[in-house]
Amino acid sequence: MSIAVDPARARREAPTSDSVSHGRRDLPSLTGLRWVAAFLVFVFHVSGWGVAGSSWWHFGQFGFVGVSFFFVLSGVVLTWSGRPGQTRRDFYWRRFARIYPSHAVTALIAIVLYLYVMPPHKDLWAGLVALALLHAWVPFPGVYSAANGVSWSLSCEAFFYALFPGICGLMSRMSRRRRTAVVAAVLAVCSSAAIITSFVANGRFDTAGYMSPPIRIGEFVLGIALGLALREGWVPRVRPSVAWAATAVAVVVALGAGSQRGWPVPRGLADVLTAGPLALVLVAYAGRDLTGRTSLMATPWAVYLGKLSFAFYLVHQLLLDLVMKTLLPLHGRASGAIAWRSGVALVLSLLAAMAVHHGVELRCQRLLTRRRTHAKVLPVPYPDETRARDLARVAS
Prior knowledge:
The protein is mainly alpha-helical. 69% of the residues lie in helices and 0% in strands. It folds into two domains: 1-22 and 381-396, no CATH class; 23-380, no CATH class. Helix 4 (65-80) crosses helix 10, helix 11 runs antiparallel to helix 12 and helix 13 packs across helix 14 (335-369).
């Protein structure tokens, strides 16, 4: 019994080799989105200077969800870009070369600044714990915010990297149904812990629970699952506008919680509400990249800012504090005074990020990895392409 198939229709409905990569191609929009995440965190730190003066600054305080965005994105990108045949040792070394030199440089600068230049002064011993990327494990504000305060998230990432080869290998051997159930269970446990610890601490962003690596690993595991789905041939068909709208709805719900119980909005609750929609944003843009469609996040300037995002993230709070406390001391909480000083800090942060990115990050990566062989990235065919070829054979 033969089946009548319209080859032209099959070609129209299935992705072609021109629109979808045969292998693991670059996803430039995800690089551009890294800048969005970093800028959200910058807005969050700026808003902290103005909350005492006006409740409107609470909107900007939602920028802390940029860290959640980073954690999910990290899982997606590491999984998608995984090198077949790469050893654990090689993976760990490449992660070290990618992250640690810039962290070490900015942490040492932060230790000097907060010891001798800017209050509040931080303890040297705690700064050394931060230099070793262990500070997120110590549930005391003087330690987990030591040295460069934003580096607590790198302490979490170091934990994620340690577990990544095992988690990714295990999940890649699961069926999609079982993988979904496992991810849902991990997210349920982590989300419950995040919400409970956030409410217990009255929603403060700097709670030990919010910065706890075991609690934050749920977002990273979600990213691994999404990366595996993409790697196995899933081509998302979600519009970015829909994903951003879902994120806006989640923020409004979190704002409602904040207004009902008094500010600030519980950080754990806000992260839980926005993690799903922000993950939807990631897959929406990944789908556009995979099908060869353009996006604002894939433009050259957005991609370059995305490449600067890690260095920008590391330097922005240091320079914001330096401007507000020392270079252009802020007296009072007038919104205009905060805004223009923040603009100065943004420009200085971008210039410093360029210096760290090109002078430390890229240079050290090349220096530390140039003697290591580059594993070949093997092509991964997509199921839709395979089906299209089979349909064409039947029709002929």
